Amino acid sequence: MSEPIRRKALDVIAERLDLAGRRIADVGCGEGGFVRALTGLGAQVIGVECGAEMLERARAAEPAGNERYVEGVGQDLPLPDASADCVVFMNSLHHVPVEHMADALAEAARVLLPGGLVLVNEPIADGPFFQLTRLVEDEEEVRAAALASVRSACAAGLFVEREEVVYLNPVRFDGYEAFATRMGLIDAARKSRVAAGEDVLRARFHELATLRDGFFFFDQPARLTILEKPAS
Description:
Elements: H1 9-14, E1 23-27, H2 33-40, E2 44-49, H3 52-60, E3 68-71, E4 84-90, H4 101-111, E5 112-123, H5 128-133, H6 140-155, E6 160-173, H7 176-184, H8 188-196, H9 198-208, E7 210-212, E8 215-228
Parallel strand pairs: 1-2, 1-4, 2-3, 4-5
Antiparallel strand pairs: 5-8, 6-8, 7-8
Helix pairs in contact: 4-6, 7-8
């Protein structure tokens, strides 16, 4: 089996999908970085986020175009029926409570036009970055549950799987502080654990990262699953 390619998530998606003009909902958009990247490629994007601090940061960032952000959760999207060409879960489906993952995918189907696509990008529980982040919270079980929910949605006929791509996503940080801030934004409990474990986390960060061009990199194995809503 060949080694997975090292590619940014946006490049993997853009190579497979013409984004210009598409109406996209980015569910669990965080600080909005991916919303702005998609907007920069000509998409019409709305970001959905439930975290107050992340939503505030997304709205305060320099806009890339006419993107906008709304507060909401994946299992109850604040979007009209058949209003999107594409729904994206960029490393976010595993953050939906396990008991609501199926609901989140059903909501994605509701807001999609017939023939629309769902892009589920999930980090794989392996590699140096997982070794680091599991010291804050071990997500192996919830990531497995997210993949299982995708498989179940296809088995139930909600979607047809168009393609699955496994690749290495380069995760970049300016330094440990940037990593700690990013981890702490997810919720208050994580922020507290990051602060409490700073000494160990800082040491492991520098041990596991690869320094390139003045930045700290981790190759995060990831799986992109492209699903299509049946046309009828």
